[in-house]
Design a protein that fits this description.
It is built from 14 helices and 13 strands. By secondary structure, the chain is an alpha/beta fold. The chain folds into 2 domains: 15-187 and 377-389, Rossmann fold (3-Layer(aba) Sandwich); 191-372, Rossmann fold (3-Layer(aba) Sandwich). It is globular, with a radius of gyration of 21 Å.
C-alpha cells in the first residue's frame, strides 16, 4: 500500500483505545480493525487495541495489542459468555485508563446490555466514548431494545457512521444527535489480502469446471441479502448464458437454507449452482474471488457492505442493488453495476447485458480497483477518524 503523508495542523496528544470484543470471530472484521489501526498510527495517533484471544496480533509497528477477552465465544451458555465479556471489558478499560488513555472507540453491530455495560464502565472512569455504528438496526437481533439503544447513544460523545444514509437513519430516531455524528467511510482490505490471478488454478481448487463463467454470491446468507432475487433471475439468465455457474459461498443464518433450496429444486437449477453453504476459511476466500467473473450483491436492505469493499479490494467487478448506501460507492457502468433493488426483471436484464460485454466488465473492474485504493485508503480513513476524535 502506498504511503501517504498528511500534515496534521491540529495536535493530537490524547491516547486512544479501540475496545472490540468481536475481533476475528466468525468474520473479516479484524481486517477492518487492523486497517483502522494502521491509518490512525500513520496520522500520529497513539493507539492501543483490546480484543479477544481468537485474534492474532497484526504486528503493526507502534500498535499496542492486548487480548483480555478470553474465550468469550466458546461456551454454549450465554451467562458464562456474558461473564467472560464483562471480565474482558473490566480488564481492558482499567488497563487503558491507567495507561493514560481517555478516548475509547467501540464498534457495534447490535445493541444489548453488554454493549451498554461497556459504555457505562468507560463513563464511570471519566472516559470519552466514540462509537462506530455498523448496522443502525441489527439484522440478526430483532429483540433490540429501543431503551437500550437510546441509552447507548446518550452515553456516546461522538458517533461515526459510514455514509449519509446511516446518519439520516440515526437522526430519524433521535434528531438531537446531529451535532455529534461524523461520516467516515469503510476502508479497503488491500493491505491484508492476497490477490490471486490464476483463475484456472483457483477454479481447480474449488472444484469448478474451467469452461464455466462464474457469478459469485459471497458472505453470510440472511433474508435481507436477497439471494432469492438472484435465484429467480438466474432461472432466466441461463437461457441466454448456459455456461453460467452461480457459486453461493457463505453460511446460512441459523443454518436454514430451505427457502432457497426450494427455489433451486422447483426450477431445476442444481446444475447451474455450486453450493458452498458453510463458513469459508480465510485461506480460501481469495480463490472464490479469483475464480469469479462477476460478484452479485442483490441486497434488499443494508447500511454498509464489507463484502462490497472486499470485492473491490480483490479487483473484481460487482453488480449491486441500487440502495442508497451502495450508490454512495458505486456509479453504474463506471466502477461497478447497479440494478433496481428486488426487481428480478431488471436484475435479469442487467446480468445478460454485463455477461455480453466483457470489454465493459474489464473497464469497470479497473475503475473499481482504482477507487478502493484511493478514496478508501486507510491512511485517508485514519485522517478523517482523527478529525472526529479532535472534536471531543
Amino acid at each position: 500500500m502506498k504511503k501517504i503523508v498528511y500534515l496534521n495542523p491540529l495536535k493530537m496528544n490524547r491516547k486512544v483505545a479501540i475496545i472490540d470484543p468481536l475481533g476475528a470471530h466468525g468474520s473479516s472484521h479484524h481486517f477492518y480493525l487492523f486497517g483502522q489501526a494502521e491509518g490512525l498510527l500513520k496520522n500520529d495517533v497513539e493507539l492501543s487495541l483490546y480484543t479477544n484471544n481468537e485474534t492474532s496480533s497484526p504486528e503493526i509497528n507502534g500498535l499496542k495489542f492486548f487480548t483480555f477477552y478470553k474465550d468469550i465465544f466458546k461456551s454454549k451458555s450465554r451467562v458464562i459468555s456474558g461473564i467472560k465479556w464483562v471480565i474482558g471489558t473490566v480488564f481492558s478499560v482499567f488497563h487503558a485508563r491507567f495507561s493514560g488513555i481517555s478516548i475509547f472507540h467501540f464498534h457495534i453491530f447490535y445493541t444489548n446490555f453488554l454493549v451498554l455495560f461497556n459504555l457505562l464502565f468507560v463513563k464511570i472512569l471519566f472516559g470519552k466514548v466514540v462509537l462506530t455504528v455498523h448496522d443502525v438496526s441489527s439484522f440478526s437481533n430483532l429483540s433490540n431494545s429501543s431503551i437500550i439503544k437510546k441509552l447507548i447513544y446518550k452515553l456516546t460523545d461522538r458517533i461515526i457512521t459510514h455514509n449519509e444514509f446511516s446518519k439520516l437513519e440515526i437522526l430519524n430516531e433521535n434528531t438531537i444527535l446531529s451535532s455529534c455524528i461524523s461520516i467516515v467511510p469503510h476502508g479497503n482490505y488491500t493491505p491484508f489480502i492476497n490477490i490471486q490471478y490464476d483463475k484456472e488454478k483457483s477454479k481447480e481448487r474449488l472444484g469448478i469446471q474451467n469452461n464455466r463463467r462464474i457469478l459469485l454470491f459471497f458472505g453470510m446468507i440472511k433474508k435481507v441479502k436477497g439471494l432469492e432475487v438472484l435465484l429467480s433471475a438466474l432461472n432466466v439468465v441461463i437461457k441466454q448464458n448456459p455456461d453460467v455457474l452461480l457459486v453461493i459461498a457463505g453460511k446460512p443464518w441459523d443454518n436454514d437454507f430451505s427457502a432457497y433450496q426450494k427455489i433451486i429444486d422447483e426450477n431445476n437449477l442444481s446444475k447451474y449452482i455450486l453450493l458452498h453453504t458453510k463458513f469459508i476459511p480465510q485461506e480460501d476466500v481469495e480463490h472464490y474471488y479469483c475464480a469469479s467473473d462477476l460478484v452479485v450483491l442483490p441486497y434488499k436492505k443494508i447500511y454498509q457492505s464489507g463484502v462490497l469493499m472486499m470485492t473491490l479490494s480483490y479487483e473484481r467487478p460487482v453488480l449491486v442493488s441500487d440502495l442508497p448506501p451502495l450508490k454512495e460507492i458505486i456509479s453504474d457502468n463506471e466502477n461497478g453495476f447497479l440494478f433496481k433493488t428486488e426487481n428480478v426483471s431488471d436484475l435479469t436484464n442487467k446480468l445478460n447485458s454485463i455477461l455480453g460485454n466483457e470489454e465493459l466488465m474489464e473497464q469497470v473492474r479497473t475503475k473499481g480497483a482504482e477507487l478502493i485504493n484511493t478514496k478508501y485508503d486507510w491512511c485517508e480513513i485514519g485522517r478523517q477518524t482523527k478529525h472526529a476524535y479532535q472534536s471531543l
